[in-house]
Amino acid sequence: MGANHSISFFDNHFQKQVSEQSFALNHFEEAALPHLTGSVLDLGCGLGNLAIEAARRGASVVAVDASPTAVAHIQYVAEQEKLVLQGIQVDLSNYRIDGQYDTIVAIGLLMFFEQERALALLDEIQQHLRPGGRAVINVLIEGTTFMGMFQPGHYYLFGRDELAQRFAGWRVLEHAFQAYPAPESTEKVFATIIAEKI
Ligand SMILES: C[S@@+](CC[C@H](N)C(=O)[O-])C[C@H]1O[C@@H](n2cnc3c(N)ncnc32)[C@H](O)[C@@H]1O
């Protein structure tokens, strides 16, 4: 699978979840679900719990992740349930978004790139939404001290107000911060924004 620690970290995690048939939506995905309508692109979709649920509710979904375990699971469910859901395995370090979408999701993804790539991908997400379309973005921010998921030197913790600044001129529907305890007395601090393109 290559040397990217973040990708193997999550693939191992997903193998365990598939073996346990553990597919619950996380807190961020629950909040995002009502916003996933029309044509949806879910970048860094993980096991696809959100993408699958959106497709079950009638969205047409492209779900992208580097984890072979996750994408195989998504393709299996899409085939079993005849969903309009395409699972694509790709390293998003080198990926260009194709086409325009009504919703683009990146929950827990952009911090796994160096700053330049993280911001270029965020810019591309903004460019590939139709007017009236929604971006659902969740990132780890400064103050995060849990580093176990990161490839050393290959991550970017966003500034606390950076998402709000980068979505200036958009209609912001939700903007929130959450902090969660992590192993060895560390912490994960998240910012989430859901914003509509005017
Ligand atoms: C924190 S998980 C979030 C998964 C899902 N969005 C969720 O909310 O549960 C981060 C995801 O990003 C994916 N990822 C990390 N680096 C990636 C890369 N370079 N290319 C594609 N996916 C990547 C991982 O495989 C993992 O599924």
From TrEMBL:
Give the protein name, as stated in the record: Methyltransferase domain-containing protein
A molecular-function term among this protein's GO annotations: transferase activity
Where in the numbering of this chain does the Methyltransferase domain appear? 40-133
- Which keywords does the record carry? Transferase
Transferase found in the keyword field: yes
CDD domains named in the record: AdoMet_MTases
**One Pfam family matching this protein:** Methyltransf_25
Gene3D superfamilies referenced in this protein's UniProt entry, alphabetically: Vaccinia Virus protein VP39
Xref: SUPFAM superfamilies = S-adenosyl-L-methionine-dependent methyltransferases
